[in-house]
Specification:
Elements: H1 2-21, H2 23-53, H3 58-83, H4 89-105, H5 107-122, E1 130-133, E2 136-143, E3 147-151, E4 157-161, E5 171-172, E6 176-185, H6 191-203, E7 215-221, E8 226-235, H7 239-256
Antiparallel strand pairs: 1-2, 1-5, 2-3, 3-4, 6-8, 7-8
Helix pairs in contact: 2-3, 6-7
Length: 273
């Protein structure tokens, strides 16, 4: 019991002696950390605001501001430790070894961040664009360092890891997406009249992209009908709404003009034995 008390007393004396001897250094280090944290935050925010003021992507602006803040804080911490007489060389070596081990363990996550940084720098798409990648499509809602969030017409959020975006074939149609329709008419129909009817029907459809005129033409010749192909652009968020409305308008226009919409028929000839 007496030995334990003696050890505690000895330890207490060492701590008191250290505090008395290095009290000014400790106070200076704490003050330096507080001032450094305040300045780092201000500088990081200033960098972010400057980049956003020059219409640079908000994600890249925030990322750059955070990097500047962290780098300044690391420099302040190194200076503060030096004030206390602590060598940072062994600490940096240990952090480097730890970082290597952690990097190997989370290499998948790191690849997502690297891909996200590439997306932010090269900007193959931005928020509001319509993209198709890895078999999914939607409007870009958010771009993060680790993942990208798409949203479709049903307001379903689709989260894609960024490593699955970079290096893949990417379709970017800005804010619109292509709608493709088809309709078959009888072979004795006036094809010019059919084309005009379809174009007039689409002109009455609100929401069709005005900068890309609808395209209508003979797509192929079926067994019982001439098949017309229809292509037009519409906002991604109203893709199916406008698709269904266009089909209704085209059908009504064809029927009103008394143009036959044939269906497959088969003739059977009975032979007497």
């Amino acid at each position: 019991m007496n030995e334990d008390i003696a050890q505690i007393q000895k330890l207490t004396d060492i701590v008191i002696e250290y505090v008395v001897t290095y009290s000014f250094q400790i106070a200076g280090a704490i003050f330096l950390l507080i001032i450094g944290a305040w300045i780092s935050g201000k500088v990081g925010k200033k960098v972010e605001n400057i980049m956003r003021g020059r219409d640079i992507d908000i994600t890249l602006s925030r990322f750059t501001g955070s990097i500047v803040k962290v780098m300044l804080m690391v420099m302040v911490a190194v200076i503060a430790l030096g004030q206390l007489g602590i060598s940072v060389t062994p600490l940096l070596a240990a952090l480097g070894a730890l970082g290597l081990g952690v990097g190997l363990a989370i290499q998948g996550m790191l690849s997502n961040y690297a891909a996200g940084f590439t997306i932010i720098i090269t900007r193959p798409f931005v928020v509001g664009d319509t993209i198709r990648v890895q078999g999914v499509a939607g409007l870009v809602k958010e771009v993060h360092l680790g993942y990208t969030i798409l949203v479709d017409e049903d307001d379903v959020k689709i989260q894609i890891p960024n490593r699955l975006v970079i290096g893949e074939i990417l379709h970017n149609s800005s804010t619109n997406s292509l709608i493709e329709l088809s309709i078959g008419v009888a072979y004795d129909s006036d094809t010019n009249q059919v084309t005009t009817l379809i174009l007039d029907a689409l002109s009455n459809l609100e929401g069709v992209e005005a900068s890309h005129k609808p395209i209508v033409g003979i797509d192929n010749f079926g067994d019982s009908s001439i098949n017309f192909g229809i292509r037009f652009w519409a906002p991604t968020t109203k893709h199916y709404e406008l698709r269904f409305a266009a089909n209704k308008l085209i059908h009504d226009a064809i029927v009103k003009a008394n143009i036959a919409i044939p269906f497959p028929q088969r003739e059977i000839t009975m032979l007497n034995s």
